[in-house]
Structures are given as C-alpha cells and as structure tokens.
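Minimal example, chain plus flavin-adenine dinucleotide.
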Amino acid sequence: MENKFDLIVIGAGPGGYVAAIKAAKLGLKTAVVENREVGGTCLNRGCIPAKAMIHASSLYREIQESERFGITAPTVSYDYGKILAYKEDTSRKLSQGVEQLFQGNGVTLLNGVGTLEKTGAVTVTSGGETTSFYADNVILATGSKPLCIPIQGKDLPHVVTSDELFRLEKVPESLLIIGGGVIGVEFATVFEALGSKVTIVEALPRIIANMDKEFSQNLKMILKKRGIDIHTSATVLRLEQDGDQLACVFSEKDAEQSISAEYVLMAVGRCPNTDGLFGDGVELEMERGRVVVDAAFQTSMDYVYAIGDLIKGVQLAHAASAQGICLAERLAGVDATVDLSVVPGCVYTNPEIASVGMTEEEAKVQNIPVKTGKFIMSANGKSLITMEERGFVKVVAHAETEEVLGAQMMCARATDMIGEFGTAVANRLTVHQMLKGMRAHPTYNEAVGEALEAIAGGAIHVM
Ligand code: FAD
C-alpha cells in the first residue's frame, strides 16, 4: 500500500471526513485514519441516532394525540427493538454513504488507531500491527467522548453515558438525567414520550443555559407540563444503590434530597478524545485537554492542524464540518476563512429551538442599539393547520442600519428555518434585503417574513 500522501486526517467524524473529501476534490492525495465506524460520534453515537429516536418517539406521541385531527388510533404501541433497529439502520446507511464518498473521491481509508509521531509521521495500529504513513500535512480530528463527573457511585451499574443509553435494550421505567444541557433535554423528551418517568438534575440555575433565557423558561414549562421533574441549581453529591434502583443524592436550596431511578444518565458534557493520538515525545500545546490552534487551525507543531470537538469552541457537527472545509481549502492553496460567530445552535425538542448570531441581551451588553421583531406562531396559518401554534420567531437587527444581527426561534421546524438567518447574518444582509425574498404560503417560514416585517413597519397578521 502507498504510504505517502499530501494529507492524512486522523478521525472520520463530520470534521475529518468532510475535510478529507474536500481536500481530495481539490486535488490533494488524501488518507483518513479511523478506528471505529466512519462518520464519528455524529453519525454513530450522536446527532443522527439521537434525532432518529426523537423522530420515532415524537411520532408515537403524535399518533396518540391524533384524535384532534379526527383520527382515532385506539391501540397505539411501539416495539423498542424495532426503534433501535431503525436508528442503527439510519446510522449505518449514512456511514456507508461516507465510505462510498471516500471511494468515489479517491480518499484512502486506513482502519486502525492513528498516532501522530514526533517525526511528523502517522502510525496506524490495527490487529497488533503498526504501519507508518507520511504526509505533507496532518489534520487531527479525533473528536470527543462523554464526560463523567467524579462523584461517588459514578461506576455503579446502570449509570450510563449517551454512548450506553443508545444501546439499552429496553426503555427504562425511570431515568434520572444529570445535566439539563441540549443532550440531557433531548433524551428527556425521547424517554418521557416512550413512557419513562424522567427527572433532570441541573447544577446551573436554568436548563439549556448556553441559550437565550426565554428558551430555558419556556422549555422548562413545557417539559414540566409533560411530567418531567426538573431540579435546577441542584448539585449532585453522590449516587447510591437503592435496592434495584439508583439513588441520586443532590443538594438544592441548601437541603439534601434523594431521587431514585432505574437508570442514571450522565449528560454533563464531553471532553476531547486524545486516546492513542500522541506518540512518545509529542507535546502539542493543550488547554484543558483541548488542542490549541490559531485562526488557521495550526497547532504548535509544524504541518499539524486540528479541528472539531478536539479544539476550543462549540462542539457541534456543522461547526466541525465548516472548519474541515475551510482548512482543506487552505491546504489546497485557496484563501478561505470560516466565520464561527454564525454557528447555529439547535435543540430538537418539541417545539424545536434554534438560534444564530446575537441575542437582544448580548447586543445590550455590547452597547449595540437594536430593534427587534417578534412574530407569534399562533397567527401563522401552517401552525394552525398542524396545531403546532406554540412559540415565536424573533429577529434582532441594528437599530440604525437594520442589518440583521441574529435570530431566535422556538417553533415547529425552527432547526430548518434558522438556516435563512445564518446566511443573512454571515452576509450582513439587512431586514429589507431579506424581505425581498418571498416565502411560500402556507409555511412555518412565513413567520420569518412576519418577524422581519415587524421591524420594517409592522407584521401583517397581527393587530
Ligand atoms: P467526532 O464526531 O467525535 O469524530 C471523531 C472520530 O475520530 C471518531 O470516529 C473516532 O472513532 C475517531 N478517532 C478518535 N481517536 C482516533 C485515533 N487515535 N485514531 C483513529 N480514529 C480516531 N451536534 C450537532 O451539530 N447537532 C446535533 O444534533 C448533535 N447531537 C448530538 C447528540 C449527542 C447524543 C451527542 C453525543 C453529540 C451530538 N452532537 C450534535 C455533537 C456532534 O456529534 C459533535 O460535535 C461532532 O460529532 C464532532 O465532530 P468531530 O469530527 O470533531 O468528532
């Protein structure tokens, strides 16, 4: 086998595989090293399986609630084994699709653990054998792995991370989730819909604390109404065996409480994955476990770059891919940049939540004068048709120039609709430029036009 390439990428997640395909398309002789399934966390243990489970569980809920559309389905049930099979099949199809793209674009896939050596070579170890490969440039894209808080009882049986939760063969009767971030609340909605008694224990004063306050308040209300118990400003002290259950002991408002559940999910964040990545004597500059890079994704070692969850910044698949494309272009001699201030943040709950760019609060902190336009979904025709009339679309624009600075939405299809605002913010479009585009009727997307109209002079479908 050839052992000299223009580029070797270690890790075939959405950062690495996208970088490799882009580099190959631009004429670089490229290899990717991957020690598990192609597609990384995203396709196999993250975005895709999580959204498949959200889709199946939402469908189950929707059918149960379909009487309001005149449909009666008296005996609705699910087969969890088949839900898991559908989820795995979806991941497999996408992973195989990426392998085909590698083949089609002439990317060499090297199966095994990739290690960056002091000499700049990359060794690949598989089945006890190690082979050395060489390249002009190396991209580290080994992603992240679930984090566990170091508390007593963290190793007890039935304490799981997202990786193991995906593999559980039955729906837990009760599930206590430590961490009310995006991953925590998404799993809470899945298992609540499938019949688990779900509790969320969050150390911060609000759930999805990295997003706008209004989202946290609304989502908390909706989840509580569905029967999910939520404890905020609650610090987990320890986990204990309680018969055949696990007791989670936490302090809330200075009082100690204990709640028992069949399973405990640790959803407290993710840490960079550098297992097996560095050979003897390789000392890259690191900060809190993450590889330090400059604006061009260059590490402290010549010809070695890093992207995705492995480096500082948001840990999202689309951010990793955007970094991968930008870096591949640069390595192929294209003068490319990536604007990481316009990474959309999404939560796939019901209703969905999505945000991009600046919030009104953030603008205030930075003394930027803004105008906002908000449209409530109860006045949107499509939302009334589908009875999804909860939520809103909000636009933040500069008060004088009317340049669109950001948008936040909580409604059906918010995660799809946010794309329009990503393009607008990245290209510094104004409210009037965005309004030149016509939105089809009846669509949820009309709410985008109405929120923009609210700034331009007044939304049409409100008094
Ligand atoms: P990864 O996807 O982690 O890929 C790294 C790859 O490198 C892996 O395949 C790994 O096996 C391989 N590897 C590691 N070390 C080596 C080595 N030494 N040699 C060879 N191979 C190696 N993001 C979103 O944008 N939207 C979502 O909806 C979303 N949902 C999520 C849901 C869950 C439950 C989780 C856990 C994550 C979710 N994420 C989501 C985050 C997203 O999955 C990550 O941000 C993304 O996968 C990071 O991409 P990456 O390429 O940096 O790394």
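The pocket of flavin-adenine dinucleotide is lined by residues 10-16, 33-36, 40-42, 45-47, 50, 113-114, 141-144, 162, 183, 273, 275-277, 308-310, 315-318, 320 (CB under 6 Å). Residues 80-105 form the longest helix (26 residues).
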